[in-house]
Write a structure and sequence with these properties.
Blueprint (H helix, E strand, L loop, with lengths): L1 H13 L3 H34 L5 H11 L4 H12 L14 H25 L3 H9 L4 H11 L1 H16 L3 H7 L9 H10 L3 H28 L4
Length: 230
C-alpha cells in the first residue's frame, strides 16, 4: 500500500496536479512571510540580548529558550482567541485567512530566531566588538560587525525557524481552517487527504515537504562551506 501510494503520489507531482501545487504555493508563501516577519523582529532582539549587559539578562535568555518548545496548538489557540469574533481583533476579520496563518507562524518562529541569534553572538570573539569600539565605531556599528562575522550561525537560526513553521500543522488548522485554494497548505493537506483515504495525495504532499526541507538544508550547507567563519 505504501509503495503504491508513493508511485501515485509521484505521478501527481510530475503532472503538476492543482491539488498538489495549490497547497505547495500556500505553504511557501505563508511560511516565508512568517519567517521574514519573525526575522525582522527576532534578529534585533537576539543581538540586544546576546550583546547587552543588563539586569535580568539570564531571565530573558531563559524565557526565550523555554519558548523554543512552544506547542503549536497553544500558539494557534492564542491567535484564535485574539482574532475570533469575540476577540479584541475580531473586527479585522482575519480568522481563516492567510494573514492569520502568517501571524501565528511568526509568533512561533520569533523566539527561535531571537534565542539562536543571542546564542550565536554570545559565542563570538568579544575582541572583535572591543576593537571596533576602540577604533571609534558606535555600539550599533560594532554589533553589526560582530553579527556579520557570525552570519552563518544567524542564517542557520533563520532556516531553523523556517523549518519549524513550514512543517507545523496546529496553527494552520486552527486559524487557517484548511480551506481549499485559500488556506490549505502541505501539512493540513496531508492530514485532510489521509483522513479521507486519499493515501497517494498524502504521500505526494509528504514527499514535497521532505524535498523542500532537504533543499533548504543543502543551501545552508553550501553557504556555510563557502563562508567559513574565523
Amino acid at each position: 500500500m505504501i509503495l503504491e501510494g508513493i508511485g501515485k503520489g509521484l505521478g501527481l507531482l510530475l503532472r503538476l496536479d492543482p491539488s498538489i501545487t495549490g497547497p505547495i504555493q500556500v505553504s511557501i508563501l505563508v511560511s516565508s512571510s512568517a519567517t521574514l516577519l519573525a526575522t525582522l523582529l527576532g534578529l534585533p532582539l537576539g543581538l540586544l540580548v546576546g550583546l547587552g549587559r543588563f539586569r535580568g539578562k539570564r531571565l530573558v535568555l531563559g524565557l526565550l529558550n523555554t519558548l523554543l518548545a512552544l506547542p503549536t496548538v497553544l500558539v494557534g489557540l492564542v491567535v484564535y482567541a485574539m482574532i475570533s469574533r469575540q476577540g479584541p481583533l475580531g473586527e479585522l476579520e482575519l480568522l481563516y485567512t492567510r494573514g492569520a496563518m502568517v501571524a501565528g507562524q511568526a509568533l512561533l518562529a520569533f523566539p527561535i530566531v531571537a534565542a539562536l541569534t543571542a546564542a550565536a553572538v554570545q559565542r563570538a570573539d568579544p575582541r572583535v566588538q572591543q576593537a571596533a569600539l576602540g577604533l571609534g565605531a558606535g555600539r550599533l556599528h560594532a554589533a553589526l560587525l560582530l553579527a556579520a562575522r557570525r552570519r552563518a550561525a544567524l542564517l542557520a537560526a533563520v532556516v531553523t525557524a523556517f523549518g519549524r513553521v513550514f512543517s507545523e500543522v496546529g496553527i494552520s488548522m486552527m486559524v487557517g481552517g484548511n480551506i481549499r485554494g485559500l488556506t490549505r497548505n502541505i501539512t493540513t493537506g496531508i492530514a485532510f487527504e489521509t483522513g479521507k483515504g486519499e493515501f497517494a495525495m498524502g504521500v505526494a504532499l509528504g514527499v514535497v515537504l521532505l524535498g523542500v526541507a532537504l533543499l533548504v538544508n543543502l543551501v545552508v550547507g553550501v553557504f556555510q562551506l563557502g563562508r567559513r567563519e574565523p
